[in-house]
Q: What sequence folds into this?
């Protein structure tokens, strides 16, 4: 079964980025506008096949009607290796900045986290093979093209990945809401760093949290005691950005 990316902005970003190789552009018949015309022109410049379909056929292929009249057929997603992430870090000339996800299974949360990670300048995101959402069209749509620019690595053992980061001199902090976690705004997050974010319901697995150098909490002033996983990740990511910009 073909793997499709849908939506005008995600497709445009896929053309600009260095992610999955596009195979063909599928466009709604008879409902052209300037943005769709631009995508068709870009596809032809890249010598991609462009095929026009009735809207109901695009609905069937996408599995819904929210595709904005365009689908991009892609090569299957290829995860980056751990070495790729380290090379990206070394080539950047910046302090290491990685994000690890433990048990994030909702595609909308996953996509939103990937978008925040790319905008924040992460060198890569690391996920476990188990208890992890795969890269789907919903993930890519929510990520708004971020996977065309962001490295995503899948590992068998997340705890071992944390140990490998620590051996490279990278401090690893897990987000946690319980007692014993330090206020994120009181901790020095400058330098080589990795953040670990767990699932919305259960958080990080005990073995994963035990491998972290420390735990961070986000202050809660209201009555609700937790944040959406993607919101928490975004807050933590940009606290790292803020601290490093203040040097």
A:
């Amino acid at each position: 079964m073909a793997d499709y990316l849908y939506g005008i902005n995600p497709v445009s970003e896929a053309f600009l980025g260095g992610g999955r190789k596009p195979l063909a552009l599928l466009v709604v018949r008879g409902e052209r506008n300037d943005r769709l015309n631009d995508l068709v022109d870009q596809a032809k410049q890249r010598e991609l096949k462009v095929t026009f379909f009735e809207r109901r056929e695009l609905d069937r292929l996408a599995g819904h009607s929210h595709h904005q009249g365009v689908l991009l057929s892609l090569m299957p997603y290829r995860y980056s290796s751990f070495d790729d992430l380290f090379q990206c870090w070394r080539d950047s000339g910046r302090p290491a900045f990685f994000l690890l996800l433990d048990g994030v299974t909702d595609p909308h949360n996953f996509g939103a986290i990937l978008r925040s990670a790319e905008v924040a300048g992460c060198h890569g995101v690391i996920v476990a093979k188990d208890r992890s959402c795969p890269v789907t069209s919903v993930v890519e749509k929510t990520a708004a093209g971020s996977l065309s620019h962001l490295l995503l690595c899948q590992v068998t053992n997340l705890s071992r990945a944390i140990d490998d980061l620590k051996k490279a001199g990278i401090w690893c902090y897990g987000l946690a809401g319980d007692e014993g976690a330090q206020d994120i705004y009181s901790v020095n997050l400058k330098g080589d760093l990795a953040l670990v974010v767990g699932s919305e319901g259960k958080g990080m697995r005990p073995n994963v949290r035990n491998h972290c150098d420390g735990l961070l909490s986000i202050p809660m002033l209201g009555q609700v005691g937790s944040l959406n996983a993607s919101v928490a990740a975004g807050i933590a990511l940009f606290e790292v950005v803020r601290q490093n910009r203040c040097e």
User: Anything to note?
Assistant: The chain has a mean pLDDT of 90.
